[in-house]
């Protein structure tokens, strides 16, 4: 096994990463200090947030050689390499892994075929999904706390120390985090305008989440409690009925094996 942080071309890659980070940091500094930019500008906040996330992606990629493959990743990737029909067949029969439903494994299987399966390539989707989830959660924070909440949300997610580790792991971690972020945003959008389209979007993200992680049910239940007991929203009854009837029917094949 190669020592962490040392491989052919590592110094050149790190040098290029440092240069890129310096450029991004200068651009972010200019955006923050330029008097021509309105301090309350939503566009300005979006650009600075995007620059921070781009900087984080560069940091993820340039330091990935320092992080060896974890045992969890080995297990997840080995299972994901199986043909999709084998994965689904083992799951339905009760002989497969039941730590989580197989949707994220099927996604990873497709990515392995596309990318070739190198260590960095395996982790790229997790990095992108983790950073995309931060952006989406910042949008949710903005809906709750106003325009001034967007950049702090980006900063908290970007500089969260555990995220720098768990945000790169190949598997279901970042995938589930992204789905929770999308579910949260779609819930807040439904509260603003409880029409059929937004109800459908929420249910779609909820389905993807509960078919990726069993704990997704807990998130959905918490949101149902929020709309019914805390907010007492006029559309609470419809929200709860449509959501749980749809999820319950979609989960019928799984109840027998759980």
What is the C-alpha radius of gyration, as a whole number of Å? 21 Å
Structural class comes to mainly alpha
Shape: flat
Report how far the terminal alpha carbons are from each other.
Answer: 39 Å
* Strand coverage percent: under 5%
Q: What is the N-to-C succession of helices and strands?
A: HHHHHHHHHHHHH
Helix fraction bin: over 70%
Count of runs of 4 or more consecutive helical residues: 13
Q: Overall pLDDT, averaged?
A: 81
The description of the largest β-sheet is: none
Number of strands: 0
Would you identify the regions where 5 or more consecutive residues have pLDDT less than 50?
A: 1-17, 35-39
Structure description:
The protein has 258 residues and is an all-alpha fold. 74% of the residues lie in helices and 0% in strands. It has helices at residues 10-33, 42-62, 71-80, 84-93, 103-115, 119-145, 150-158, 161-166, 172-192, 196-210, 216-230, 236-250, 252-255. Helix 2 (42-62) runs antiparallel to helix 6 (119-145). The longest helix has 27 residues, at 119-145. The radius of gyration is 21 Å and the shape is flat. The chain starts with 9 loop residues before the first helix and ends with a helix.
């Amino acid at each position: 096994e190669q020592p962490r942080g040392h491989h052919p071309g590592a110094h050149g890659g790190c040098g290029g990463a440092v240069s890129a980070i310096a450029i991004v940091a200068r651009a972010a500094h200019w955006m923050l200090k330029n008097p021509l930019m309105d301090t309350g500008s939503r566009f300005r906040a979006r650009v600075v947030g995007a620059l921070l996330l781009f900087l984080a992606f560069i940091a993820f990629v340039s330091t990935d050689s320092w992080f060896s493959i974890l045992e969890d990743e080995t297990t997840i990737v080995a299972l994901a390499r199986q043909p999709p029909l084998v994965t689904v067949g083992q799951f339905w029969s009760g002989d497969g892994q039941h730590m989580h439903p197989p949707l994220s494994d099927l996604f990873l299987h497709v990515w392995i075929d596309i990318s070739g399966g190198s260590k960095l390539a395996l982790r790229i989707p997790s990095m992108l999904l983790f950073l995309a989830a931060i952006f989406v959660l910042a949008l949710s924070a903005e809906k709750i706390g106003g325009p001034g909440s967007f950049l702090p949300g980006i900063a908290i997610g970007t500089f969260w120390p555990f995220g720098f580790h768990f945000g790169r792991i190949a598997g279901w971690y970042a995938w589930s985090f992204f789905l929770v972020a999308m579910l949260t945003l779609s819930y807040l959008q439904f509260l603003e305008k409880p029409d059929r389209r937004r109800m459908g979007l929420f249910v779609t993200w909820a389905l993807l989440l509960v078919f990726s992680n069993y704990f997704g049910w807990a998130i959905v239940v918490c949101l149902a409690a929020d709309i019914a007991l805390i907010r007492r929203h006029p559309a609470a009854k419809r929200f709860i009925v449509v959501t749980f009837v749809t999820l319950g029917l979609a989960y019928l094949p799984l109840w027998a094996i759980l």
